[in-house]
Amino acid sequence: MKSKLIQDACHLLQGEISPEAGIHLNLLEDDVQPMTDLLEQYDLHQLRARRLLSIYIAIKVALLRHSSCDESITGETLTRLVLDGDYLYSMYIQLCLEWNEYDLITHLAPVIKQIQIKRMDGKPDDDKLLKAFELFLKLDHSRNSASKAI
Amino acid sequence: MKLNEALDISLAAVDREIENMVKFDKDVPRSSTLAKSIVDLVRSGGKRVRPLMVIVGSRFGPTPNERKVWRLAAAAEFIHAASLIHDDIIDDSPVRRGQTALHVKLGVQEAIYVGNYMSARVIELIAAYSAERERFVYDLSSLATTQLCLGEYQQLSHLYDYDVTAEEYLEKSKNKTAQLMATCLRIGAQSAGAKDEVFNLLYSFGEKLGMSFQILDDLLDFTQSSQQLGKPAGSDLRKGQVTLPVLYALQDSRLAPSIRAINSDTPSSEIDAVIASIQASDALIRTEALSNQYLDEAQAIINELDMYPAHKDLQALLHFFSGRDK
User: Fold this and answer.
1) What's the superkingdom here (chain A) (predicted)?
2) Residue A1: is its pLDDT beyond 60?
3) Which residues have C-beta within 8 Å of that of residue A138, sequence separation ≥ 6?
4) Is the pLDDT at A61 greater than 70, yes or no?
5) What is the ipTM, given to two decimal places?
6) Chain B residues touching residue A93 (CB < 8 angstroms)
7) Which helix (H) or strand (E) holds B122?
8) In this prediction, what percent of chain B has a pLDDT beyond 90?
9) Measured between alpha carbons, how far is A40 from B65 in angstroms, rounded to an integer?
10) Residue B99's closest CA among B11, B49, B40, B30?
11) For B189-242, how does the pLDDT look when each residue is reduced to its tens digit (9 = 90+)?
């Protein structure tokens, strides 16, 4: 059974996705559980944890949609896979801006680019995404602890 | 005179700036397929309308920062080129600018990743150069392609839909084409510190040019020969896209039944006859009239901005958009 955090994050993201896109977030729990475990290690406000997980899910689903595209898939199925990935990559930017997660964009942008380069080389390294979130949370925690101490 | 000459902008310098987006990326070896594919794509040509629009926009502000403006101009072309790579996959188009399309050369997945790289590189550069948070937010949200994708979804959901309204067609055209053109003028102007009312007028001007451009593009699909188009005339309708000429033709009760009968299984010979009847109707004249109406509205905006010397550049853009072969 999916944890409440995953359910809430999916619900939040689904609400942000335009109905015209017709995207359904049919994720496997295994795809998001490592990120959920990571978030639970930090004392984050519930809303922020939900938002960060939503952003992670948007990128994760974009990666999954585009990795499903190959020569055997054609027509509307291919069109939707390409568009869903494109739309969700742009959604992650919109969500970060909407939720004031500017440092997260700066942190993730080179990583998402590097993931595309690795995939292009035929040496996918999608785990970089989770590692990037891990480092971001660590830095964010240090920053917040330092500012509290001051 | 070519558009870039009328605007006194070196196209070679624009192309160099675009190529530098990948050449100066430390994560991409210059000899890699990725770098070569992008450089080849840039060198295959293009009028660079969007980068030129960014530069023109910057001429309306008091403090143009040339470095930033040119980088934004290159970013705009990167976003556009990335969308074309993915469009070619979606449309199953084997040719782009007279050359084999990227997905045919590299494979579908690889071409998707080239497009993704280009979009991601733009985000990375904007996030890195923007020290001012307000500008960072503005540029990123402007160049995010959510609306562009929505335009594609709208097109997809209305395939062979003969009840689509003109408003829905115009909304789709705005999302797919006009919004990015409008954004180019506005981000250029804003980066140079133009006043709010000026960059809003420039946005509106770009939107009207973009609408006229898309409508004319849909018209050309009916008026140009298959040789000029590089595909059969009426190919949009053959693929189920109900564009403005078709919407106008549907208002003719003699034509409507044969148009509505077209679906994905209709033989090409039957569609040929319907296309000929649309070509002979007044639908094409009405389509051109709406395209011209948008240009007239764009002209009115130029008149509002005539105290700025750069209004002449808007005139050059308008002249370019109105001068496309019909």
Assistant:
1) Bacteria
2) no
3) none
4) yes
5) 0.95
6) 123, 140-141, 144
7) helix B108-129
8) 83
9) 45
10) B40
11) 999 999 999 999 999 999 999 999 999 999 999 998 766 666 678 899 999 999
Would you call B42 exposed, middle or buried from its count of C-beta atoms within 10 A (0-12, 13-18, 19+)?
Answer: buried
H or E, element range at B96: strand B95-96
Q: Is A24 left (phi over 0), alpha (psi -120 to 50) or beta?
A: beta
Mapped onto helix, strand or coil, the DSSP state of residue B121 is helix
Tell me the angle at which helices B11-23 and B49-58 cross, rounded to the nearest 10 degrees.
100
Domain residues for the domain of B201 are 3-322
- A51's CB contacts (< 8 A; 6+ apart) are A9, A12, A95, A99, A101
**CA–CA dist B139, A79 (Å, integer):** 28
User: What is the maximal distance between C-alpha atoms in chain B?
Assistant: 62
Number of domains in chain B: 1
Give B187-214 as a DSSP string. Answer: HHHHHTT--HHHHHHHHHHHHHHHHHHH
Residue reference for tokens 């084999």:
B100
pLDDT exceeding 70 applies to what percent of chain B?
95
CATH number for B186: 1.10.600.10
Domain ranges of chain A: 4-149
Mean pLDDT confidence for B168-188: 95
Give the pLDDT of residue B227. Answer: 64
Return d(Cα B124, Cα A23) in angstroms, integer: 26
Please give the Cα distance from A85 to A71 (Å, whole number).
Answer: 17
pTM of the model: 0.94
Residue A69 and residue B108: Cβ atoms within 8 Å?
yes
Mutate to test the interface with A, among B89, B112, B155, B179 (most CBs of A within 10 A): B112
B123 to A91, A106, B115, B232: CA distances (angstroms): 13, 8, 13, 38
Give A-chain residues touching B138 at CB under 8 angstroms: none
